[in-house]
Amino acid sequence: MKTIINTMIVTTMLLSFNWSIAQTKKTETVKIYGNCGMCEKIIEKAGTLKNVVKVDWNKETKMATITYDAKKTNQDEILKRIALAGYDSDKFLAPDDVYNNLHGCCQYDREAKNTIVKTKSEVAETKPMDHAKHQKMENKAEQDSNLLKVVFDNYFTLKDALVKSDGTTAANNSKFLLDALNSVNMKELPMDVHVVWMKSVKELKEDAEHIADTKDIGHQRDHFITLSENIYELIKTAKYQTPVFYQFCPMANSSKGANWLSTDSAVKNPYYGSKMLSCGKTVETIK
User: Which residue has the higher pLDDT, 50 or 18?
Assistant: First the structure.
């Protein structure tokens, strides 16, 4: 009988304890501004505390699901920590110097800044980053931007050969482009660039191979169409050291039209060369 009574007492105490925990556990959804997978890692790491807070941020919706122990913390404290890591919410803004030190791909449009300026004073001040650390971050950003530079440079030299209708040089330049593509270590690419790379790398290599394996300028130009489409998507995300001009010829591709990229604002048509050298126009400038 005593055993039964003791079991009932222990069970009652456990139920009471679990109910108490459930009463203090809260789950809320808030908007936190950011861009990419790198942002996701920083936001979740800044907000999460083991056994106290779990933050799950969605880069598509910009919404974070925050589950926390209300006895130990609150939403404001969580959002303040995330703001100190560089990410605005509709309640707290990141200090400008912290936001400015985010990686280029992580510097989201600061939509909240115009409407929630009054709450900026609620965010704790952060110590200025020392010069050595700041320089290290700048060097890392520059390194990231240069990872694909050799790919883009070889694309431009290939384009120049097609402008001259030189199939032999185009084939050789495309071999260099293929080597550059094969040399890219995708693990070192920033998250947003990595996503585009994974979508396009197979087609990029196939087109480069086709152009390299022939001196037939017509066949090379056919593959240059899709090559240019994929390079455009990549350079839009990864950027280039100077402005790039996205140009269009309505007569190319059997009058369906085709694009190419150039570092020169003047139109020099790679699909027709000297036959219609200036046929086309710049439709976008990528900076």
Answer: 50
